[in-house]
Amino acid sequence: MRSIIYTVAFSLAAFPGFADPLPSWAASENKTAIIDFVESVTDPASPDYVTPDARIATFDNDGTLWSEQPLYFQFLFSFDQLRMMGAADPSILTSDTLKAAAKGDVETVVAGGKDALVEVLVAAHSGMSAETYRSSVSEWLTSATHPETNLPYDQMLYQPMLELLRYLRDEGFETYIVSGGGIDFMRVFAERVYGIPPENIVGSSFQASYQVIDGVPTLMKEGELFFYDDKEGKPVGIYRHIGRRPILAAGNSDGDFQMLEYTTAGDGARLGILVRHTDSDREFAYDREGHIGVLDRGLDEGPERGWAIVDMARDWSQVWVSQ
Predict the structure, then answer these.
(1) Peptide bond into 16 cis (omega under 30)
(2) Of 17 and 148, the one with more pLDDT
(3) Which of 73, 85, 195, 316 has a 20 to 30 Å separation from 164 between CA atoms?
């Protein structure tokens, strides 16, 4: 059992014919580690060679593939949904939490902890068909903008991570999202923006029911949480949905710790990656302190476990895909 990080430095400039697979990554040990790992597990002559069927790579979504501040984007969608629903029928705002969410009061909702956040999700996501929900998410993504950057949410993707996804697929990897975010929410846009199809999404989910409404077979979203795909839930979700232990896993917070731990505990070459948010100029700076995306245990234990701690300010020459 071993976890390998490759740190042999080289300069791409020394190889004019070499096409840089990660052009938005600054030259660093982390970039070198990723490229060396991929080359090693895809080279049939390498002792670390991995057959294509076992080249599984899993990625967290919020804070790893796109931004997550000031709150997970799915919750910001839910706030907007409750605002519209409350304007049409104020009686649905049955608690102080829901009233705060409809007003866009992030601080009050977050102060209520997990229970308050789940209450917001239930109110904004249940009691509708899966088709209606998907249409609402799609419309929101095309019209809403981030409160601080004014960018559309689906443009707040991390260019370096899109390059990594593409590089892995070019080298025969199957890429998956394994996120605490809602599986139905991510399935709306993941294929278009990440190149990851709906069947490769592992996420949290609410119960659903099958009903025939006006003669039409319909899946309805219910208000009971079915599976929470975070922390210890991530390896369970991987087991249920994928059935193979990944050889590469990437995240950004302690909510991803168990996924990286599970991944790098396997035999052969393995790579764990944690994105550390250190760039207050181009994005947001937070890790040990914060209301979401806290990275504490990962910073303490990641290096000794051989995980690559990617410093956004240092390791990325570009952040947003829109740049």
Answers:
(1) no
(2) 148
(3) 73
